[in-house]
Amino acid sequence: MSSTRVVPGEPHWFHRHHCWGAHIPSLAMRSWLFDEGSLTQRLKAICEDDFRVEVQQRVWQHVEMNECRVLQLRGAEFAYVREVILYCRQRPMVFARTVIPALTVQRHQYLLMLGNKPLGAALFADPKMHRGPIEITCLTPKQKLFRRVVTCISEKPDQVWGRRSLFRLRTDPLLVAEYFLPDGVPI
């Protein structure tokens, strides 16, 4: 699933045992990045009753080239993109971006109607769901996605760690990327 070519301005994604270059996540951050369970459940356990999802955008659009490669979409295809911020105790913890191809939406229409409900709860409740390998990235201010990820925080960091996985509902793919905001998840 890892990108072989890096498009300028797009994140470069790495598998767990790949060389990360100058950016190496702390052990505590790695526990979040490589946790294969439900991020929603893990955050809810920390937040108790003060967890919420705030939708930033829900739109049909052309997606990034690296997302097209993972989802095996042609560049001209539209996909449904949902971006949310996960809050815990009124603090933004995670920026999440989900890319859902049209055929997946057609077969799983409830994905369009989540509103402020967490996607993770729906995915992990589906016994036919399969999660592919986790890839990680380190966003920096040079990347255009970085600006969207950090819009909800006042003090802009030098980097933001993220992860993504290709999920399948039966055989239908969707790509979920989660970016851990500074001072968000306990590390």
Describe the structure.
The chain is of the alpha+beta class. The chain has a single domain (28-180), classed as Chorismate lyase-like (Chorismate lyase). It contains six helices and eight strands, in the order βααβαββααββαββ. Strand 3 and strand 4 form a beta hairpin. The protein starts with 13 loop residues before the first strand and ends in a 7-residue tail after the last strand.
TL;DR of this structure?
Helix content is 22%, strand content 33%. With 187 residues, the chain is an alpha+beta fold.
Number of strands: 8
Rg value: 16 Å
Which CATH top level class fits?
Answer: Alpha Beta
The helicity comes to 10-25%
Helix and strand succession? EHHEHEEHHEEHEE
Q: Provide the residue-averaged pLDDT.
A: 88
| Major sheet summary line | 8 strands, antiparallel
Catalogue the unreliable spans. none
CATH H-level superfamily title:
Chorismate lyase-like
Shape descriptor reads globular
What number of domains?
Answer: 1
SSE topology sketch:
Blueprint: E1 14-15, H1 27-33, H2 39-47, E2 51-61, H3 65-71, E3 79-88, E4 91-101, H4 102-107, H5 119-125, E5 129-131, E6 135-139, H6 144-149, E7 160-169, E8 172-180
Antiparallel strand pairs: 1-6, 2-3, 3-4, 4-8, 5-7, 6-7, 7-8
